[in-house]
Structures are given as C-alpha cells and as structure tokens.
Amino acid sequence: MSIEIIKPGLASSIQDKGREGHYHLGIPPSGGMDQRSLIAANLLVGNPEGAAVIECALMGPELRFDTTRKVAACGAEMTPRVNGEAQPLNEVFEVPAGSTLGFDFVKAGARLYLAIEGGIDVPERLGSRSTYALGSLGGMQGRTLQAGDTLALFQAHGQAVSGRHLPPSLVPEFSRQYQLRVMPGLYAHRLRAESETRFYSEDWVVASEADRIGYRMKGGTPLSFIEREPPFGAGDDPSNIVDACYPIGSIQVPSGSEPIILHRDAVSGGGYAMIGTVISADMDTVGQIQPHQKVRFVQVTLEEALAARAHYQKVLKQLRQMP
Amino acid sequence: MTTQQVQAPFPGVFYRKPAPDEPVYIEEGQAVQAGDVIGLIEVMKQYVELKAEVSGTLESFSAENETVLEAGDIIASVEVSE
Q1: A115-164 pLDDT, tens per residue?
Q2: How many domains in chain B?
Q3: Which InterPro entries match (chain A) (predicted)?
Q4: What percent of chain A has pLDDT above 70?
Q5: Which structural domain range is residue A222 located in?
Q6: Within a 10 A sphere around the Cβ of A320, how many other Cβ atoms?
Q7: Do A12 and A126 lie in a common domain?
Q8: Mean pLDDT within A290-299
C-alpha cells in the first residue's frame, strides 16, 4: 500500500493542517498554504479533513500507485492524468493499482492538493505530519519529495465514491491579479505617512523567490521609514526594530525596498518592522499566487477582518456539510 | 520532418546561459540530443535545467534570455531527426 515518486515536481511536500502550538519555540505551523483546498480534497475522499496530503507547487509530480485508491485534487488548475487520460479536478476519481498519476502544466493558481483515500502514513512530529523543510522536520524525512521516494498509505476506509465533487459555489476562482486585505500594525507608525498611503495604492509583483517561508513583493516604490535614534537592541536601518514576534501573514519591509508576507514556514521573530498583517481569511489566497502575478494591498478594519474570518469559517462549514 | 516545441513546465524566469558571464547552452541551428540542457528556469530559489526531449536540430528560441514565462509557454522549437 504505497505510492512511488517517479518525478517529484518542483517543490512537492507532505502537508496536513499544520503543527500548532510551537511557534513560541521557533517552530512554525507549516501545513498546507491553502488550507481550504487541502481540507476540501480530504473531505471529498472521506478522509479526516486534516489527513496528510501532497502539496504540489507550480508543477505536479508523477506518481505510481501499487494499490487501487480513490483520490481528489483541489486547488491550482493542473489537469490530473491517469496513464495519460485526463481526470477532473475537485472530484473523486480512481487510480488503479499499477497505474501512473501525472499532471498537466498549471493553468491557474499555484498549489494543488492531492488527497489519497486513507491518507499518507508518515510519522507525526510534534503532533503533525507536515513538512517543515527549513527545519528538516516532519513529512518525508523532513524534506520535499524526491524521485524514488516511496510513500506508505494508511488502510483505505472504503468510503470514497468516484464522481463526488465540490459544488460549483465552493470551487475557488483564481486570477492573475489579487487583492489582499491587510490590518495595519504593529509598527505601521514607523512608516512615513506618504509611504503608507502609497503602499496601499500601488501594484506589487510577486518575486520569483516566493515560497512557503515568505512571499516577497517587488515593483512598488520603496517605502521610507521615519528616521530615529535606534533604541537599544535595534539595528541601524530605519526599518529595524528591537526583535519582536512575527505573526504569520505579517508584512516586513527590510530597508524599505521589498515587502515580504510571512507564510506558514516563517521564522518566528526578528528585527524588521511589520507594517501590517494579511488577514487570516486571505492567507490561502496568498498560497495560490504564482510568482510574477500582481497584488494590491487593501487596508481593512478589525471589524472587516473579523467579518471576513466569519465568512471563511462559513465556507469551511459548507465544505464539511457537502453531500 | 516534424518539429517539437519545448514548453515551460512551470512559471519562472528563463535563462539561456548557466551563468551571466558564460556562453549560451546552445545556439539556434545547432544539433541537440535528447536530454541535452538547453536552458534554465528559475523559480522559488531553484534553478531547474530545461532539457530537450528529442534529438534533432534546435531551430529557434521563441523565448528571450531572462524573460518571465508562464507554464506552457513555448520556449524553443526542435526539428526532430528521423
């Protein structure tokens, strides 16, 4: 009961819902960058919503199954192919024993989540099977997948039904240009007012090095921080602060030049001023933005952020209740 | 004679040279063997070698050095040798 990695793709890794509760010790949550698609894929095949899946970034892997399994692929649009035959996205299909599952070029979005009936059997590390590659923790030996790896599967539960699909209203739509909602703070007061205004009024382009640790943006006007006498413990650059905790989603702008949105494999703290935080409801979207696509940051209030979170929770509830 | 097009397998920046001060991997009109590296694509801090899938003659590049490509964009055409 296993699958063999013939071609690994670009940065495919095993992820579940993440490793919560250790960020204060420097260990980030990891887990699927687009949690909603990870959960949707698991629920479609009848797995617990946090079962371990394969997250495939920008290019899908090629896998050989030694056992017949039902699977579902959600998230980025890369057409799955079983022995070359096209299969639907967001819908359960069967991969017969001995056959090969591959994927076409990505048409939209950045990350596809492949859930396999039963889930992937790798050991839990600190309560999660997610890969944290920077810390060599979890997943397949703490790293992204490589050709020749064999992934063990848990027993199939027999509850997956071919043809079961996401209702159209729950299929996410991808774009080439995204709006990300941001709560200003905690160090927004360190920015010059004109820089803060401009930050929210310009298009930013995702840099090619955007990954699970952070999404770096370029193309906007460099931001200028208010000059000050560095407080004890802070670096000399005006973008420096006395070391502080970094929330997931926080936006730092080292030297004012290129904003970085921290994501689920981020470092837990450091000495750069965070000028705002992408709201939790939009973090799945961040994980689906391809390098070189455009982003506009939109300032929201706490009330708007909470309303967005409530809406996001409602979508998850609809996924849990889908027929 | 058939022509095979080499497509970008994922989005990224295309390079025709292994390093800025080195010559290109292959010139237009040169013979190419299946498996030969014809360029690099960079994304997510990784440089991935782009290899020819067939042997023949590299007819032309449709993508310029250091351009941003989307997945599926055509990079080059190879005239397949019989």
Answers
A1: 999 999 999 999 999 999 999 999 999 999 999 999 999 999 999 999 99
A2: 1
A3: CT_A_B, Cyclophilin-like_dom_sf, PxpC
A4: 100
A5: 177-319
A6: 11
A7: yes
A8: 97
For position A202, what pLDDT does the model report? 97
- Minimal C-alpha gap between B77 and chain A (Å): 18
The answer on A72 and A6 residing in a single domain is: yes
Q: Are residues A268 and A119 in the same domain?
A: no
**Minimal CA separation from A233 to chain B, in Å:** 31
**pLDDT at A121 (0 to 100):** 98
On chain A, the residues whose CB falls within 8 A of the CB of B44 are 10-11, 57-58, 208-211, 291
Count up the domains in chain A and report the number.
2
Contact residues for A119 (Cβ-Cβ < 8 A; gap 6+): A42, A47, A48, A51, A52, A53, A153, A154
CATH classification at residue A236: 2.40.100.10
Is residue A11 domain-shared with residue A155, that is, in the same domain? Answer: yes
Q: Give per-residue pLDDT as tens, B66-75.
A: 999 999 999 9
Smallest Cβ–Cβ distance between B45 and the set A105, A211, A292 belongs to A211
Measure the CA–CA gap between A21 and A31, rounded to whole angstroms. Answer: 13
Residue with tokens 């099977």: A129
Boundary-marking domain end, from A109, A135, A170: A170
